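Sample log: Alkyl hydroperoxide reductase C.
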Amino acid sequence: MTLRINDPVPDFAAETDQGPIRFHEWIGSGWAILFSHPKDFTPVCTTEFGVVAQLAEEWRKRNTKVIGVSVDGAEAHRQWKGDIESFCGAPAHFPIIADEGLAVSKAFDMLPAEAYLPDGRTAADTATVRSVFIIGPDKKLKLSMTYPMSVGRNFAEVLRALDALQLTYNVPLATPANWAVGQDVIVALALNDQQAREQYGEIDIKLPYLRTTRAPH
């Protein structure tokens, strides 16, 4: 079954390189990012997980936990983290789920139901397990991205999207194309002009349906 925006994300028990978790309990009351890869000891994913490790302080500032998932085992994750940390020069404190039975990958619709792991598999066998899921404090999916094998993920964009999601969470605001922190935001059509001014102060009416205002702090 396809996982759509604002669907509750699956809860599951899993083993990680840091021990067992229950996913919803692990998320707690903040935000979470689940990012996946098809196989340990692969080049593109090593660079990506290195960036995630380097961004530890940025995740902390946003009250966001990050967790990886791969269909390799926990011991392989622990060994691979040595390579990641050596490459990026930062500790990789985030856990990585050992999804050897494909339960998590299938629950998040990254692999077809009939998928299995053949003997001597390569990353190509689980190539679709290469996604990013941003999850809100309500345990619902807020954003998802899926990348092909040949394109490294842009975690500056993941951070930008996370900032936009947190800014507009449960408030009548949206962000325009190419929005960055500090730039003006869009007032939702749920508010008329008077209500928008009462809530946000000055608004700039560019079109009857496109009104911007300064982003709230």
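Observation: The chain has two domains: 7-152, 173-214.
Observation: The chain has a mean pLDDT of 93.
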